[in-house]
């Protein structure tokens, strides 16, 4: 059974950057799409970004477009989320999740395995 582990979260000032990493064990990510979602206190899960299995198709939420970049390294079984120009409203727990091979959308229900999340806090 695949396990996903996120890392790289932390406390950063507004305008700063963080790079989140999602590492997989117990299975390959090379034939799956991957997504990042986030959940702020008292709010529902929110879509952030997805990337298809080949890494040639990405999709972003409007709120992060132009600031965040999702990428994958299938050789390392890892997915990344580079977050630049962070804002206080980006504060949330960030989760990575595995989706269908050719998927590059935002439907939460299409993702079957989820990590435990990493906290990102952006101070103003």
Report the sheet with the most strands, covering strand number, pairing sense and barrel closure.
7 strands, mixed
What percent strand? over 45%
Distance between the termini: 40 Å
What form results from the Cα inertia axes?
globular
Q: pLDDT below 50 for ≥5 consecutive residues: which ranges? A: none
- The number of helical elements comes to 0
Number of strands: 11
Gyration radius from CA atoms, angstroms: 13 Å
Q: Sketch the topology as an H/E string, one letter per element.
A: EEEEEEEEEEE
The amount of helix comes to: under 10%
Q: Averaged pLDDT, please?
A: 94
Give the class from helix and strand content and strand pairing: mainly beta
Describe this structure as you would to a colleague.
Helix content is 0%, strand content 49%. The protein is mostly beta strands and 124 residues long. Strands 2, 4, 5, 6, 9, 10 and 11 form a 7-stranded mixed β-sheet that branches. A 4-stranded antiparallel β-sheet has the order 1-3-8-7, with no helix packed on it. The model has no long low-confidence stretch (mean pLDDT 94).
Give a quick summary of the entry.
The protein has 124 residues and is mainly beta. Strands 2, 4, 5, 6, 9, 10 and 11 form a 7-stranded mixed β-sheet that branches.
Task: Identify the notable features of this structure and list them briefly.
single chain, 124 residues, four-stranded antiparallel sheet, globular
């Amino acid at each position: 059974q695949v396990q996903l582990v996120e890392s790289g979260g932390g406390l950063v000032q507004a305008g700063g950057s963080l790079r989140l990493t999602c590492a997989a064990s117990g299975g390959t990510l090379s034939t799956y799409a991957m997504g990042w979602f986030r959940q702020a206190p008292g709010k529902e899960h929110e879509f952030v970004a997805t990337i298809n299995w080949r890494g040639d198709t990405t999709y972003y939420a409007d709120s992060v477009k132009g600031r965040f970049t999702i990428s994958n390294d299938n050789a390392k079984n890892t997915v990344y989320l580079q977050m630049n120009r962070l804002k206080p409203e980006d504060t949330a727990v960030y989760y990575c999740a595995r989706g269908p091979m050719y998927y590059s959308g935002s439907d939460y229900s299409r993702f079957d395995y989820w990590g435990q999340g990493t906290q990102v806090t952006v101070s103003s």
